[in-house]
Amino acid sequence: MSRLIALLLIAGTAALAGCNTVSGAGQDISKGGQAISNSAEEHK
To answer: Which Pfam families is this protein grouped with (predicted)?
Structure first.
């Protein structure tokens, strides 16, 4: 029973960490796109 609880805690922690990682990557990609867009606007 305690192994099951430990496994669930580890899985839950990994899932939360994964969500934060994906969210951070999405923000980085969005910022990169904005920088490219701004650069294109400046060089029209």
So the answer is: Entericidin
How much is the CA Rg of the chain, to the nearest whole Å?
19
The pTM (predicted TM-score) of the whole model is: 0.55
Q: Which two tokens stand for residue 42?
A: 């400046």
pLDDT in tens, 1-44: 789 899 999 988 888 777 777 778 788 889 889 999 988 888 87
The two three-digit tokens of residue 38, written as one number: 């701004």
Which tokens sit at 7? Answer: 């496994």
